[in-house]
Automatic annotation (TrEMBL):
Organism whose genome encodes this protein: Novosphingobium album (ex Hu et al. 2023)
Domain VOC, residue spans: 2-113, 128-240
Database matches in SUPFAM superfamilies: Glyoxalase/Bleomycin resistance protein/Dihydroxybiphenyl dioxygenase
Name of the protein in its database record: VOC family protein
Amino acid sequence: MKLRSIELALPDPAAAAAFMTEVWGMAPSEVRGDTHYLRGSGPFPYLVAFEKSDEEFVRSTTFVCSAGDLAALKERVGQAGWPCCPAASEDPGAGEGILVELPEGVILRFLAGSTEVAPIEGRDLPVRLTHVVFNAADAEACGHAVEDVLGFKVSDRTKGMVFVRCNDSHHSTAFARAGFTSLNHIAFEMEDIDAVMRGIGRLRDHAHAPAWGPGRHGPGANVYAYFIAPYGPVIEFSTAVEKVPEDYKAGAPEDWTWPPNRIDQWGISDKDFDGLRVAEERFRFRRQWAPAPLED
Ligand SMILES: [Fe+2]
């Protein structure tokens, strides 16, 4: 199971795509109608889709998996009674699968048989998405739900987050203990720490200062730099997230504490809590499909 892409709806997809290609460092993939698809250097046909809508919302966050994984998912989602429907992707890469609405309304799409593309060179391109994090009213319950129904695993719990993995990467998603449901942030995997630092420089060239970072997190130990995108959400340059073994023992909040005045391993950056909070509330989830039975 791999996190592949996020599909966002917003009023000006062309402007969002221009920022992501000209400043953030992505490559254009395709434009279909009003929808702009952007890729990284890796084999996924796109990582981010921007489609036109008067309102801002997340259409879906997409994972790709094997036919066997998909069959198992269908069975468990059906048994859980979560809203879901069969879904043939009309985005680049195609593929068949399901759309699923989690208990708080987060919409995930799981696709099997979607195609990949040849990797491209570019040391400032993101390689792939490394995680998409959601705000939750009850993050603990969301963690249990995705373990029980989707077969994901909670890697660590902190005072603020429940980190969740779907392969050997420490987390591909997480639920923030926010008290409301929305998109928290989208993290792009960069080639190495230098690529993260050059990214920060590139953003500074365009008068965008980090909202938090650079730094290195506790759980997952990844390097980060968070920015508030001009089109709304929080986006992150990230690299070097830990790989964990199958039997990784999930840490509890008391295992992840910081000394006074510290919220990461390096302690070199301030965090714009208020600005981040506003950006984290902008993109909610909208189900644009009617639940339907899943065929076998
Ligand atoms: Fe992150």
